[in-house]
User: Which sequence fits this backbone?
């Protein structure tokens, strides 16, 4: 963390620093500081905005600020970059996906109002089903794995993590392993087995 602070002192407007710094702060449960770092990113580089909404959603959910997290998550899906959508294996043109998402956004909000975060996450996963050539959306599987973990569906969360284990960079594996969203499943043998693949079980 001291290294991050020194880099920020040298170049306080470096977008990659704010993005990585926010993720690291989130991984060590420094939620307020993570939010501050991600907010700086909005100002320093708008091109990071879509993925930053995703990261902020994770932070807010861990803080119990579910409505704010849902709003950030909705912003992410509504404004997902085309390059990111391709990376996630989208099965339709980005414009078509955005229109489809806009048509169900009201239903997603209603699911949250009626059934809380659980209802919202289930509704999002249902909507996303079939819209990617990857079962867990992306070559890392982290995004959907987090949602399953928050739902308490350990088997599906670990399945997503395992599905793309071979394509994970070590740095991503480390950040993923420490994500607070997985705190509730850390004692599960399947999650421990995934950690062992990366030598991260301790």
Assistant:
């Amino acid at each position: 963390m001291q290294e991050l602070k020194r880099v920020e002192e040298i170049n306080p407007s470096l977008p990659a620093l704010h993005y990585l710094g926010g993720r690291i702060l989130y991984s060590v449960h420094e939620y307020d500081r993570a939010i501050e770092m991600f907010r700086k990113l909005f100002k320093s580089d708008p091109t990071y905005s879509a993925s930053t909404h995703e990261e902020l959603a994770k932070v807010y959910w861990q803080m119990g600020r579910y409505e704010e997290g849902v709003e950030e998550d909705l912003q992410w899906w509504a404004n997902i970059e085309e390059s990111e959508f391709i990376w996630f294996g989208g099965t339709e043109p980005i414009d078509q996906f955005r229109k489809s998402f806009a048509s169900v956004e009201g239903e997603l909000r209603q699911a949250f109002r009626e059934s809380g975060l659980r209802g919202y996450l289930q509704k999002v996963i249902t909507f996303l089903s079939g819209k990617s050539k990857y079962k867990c959306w992306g070559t890392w599987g982290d995004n959907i794995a987090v949602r399953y973990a928050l739902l308490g569906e350990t088997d599906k969360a670990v399945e997503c993590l395992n599905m793309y284990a071979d394509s994970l960079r070590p740095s991503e594996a480390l950040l993923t392993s420490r994500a607070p969203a997985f705190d509730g499943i850390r004692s599960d043998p399947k999650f421990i087995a995934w950690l062992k693949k990366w030598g991260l079980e301790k």
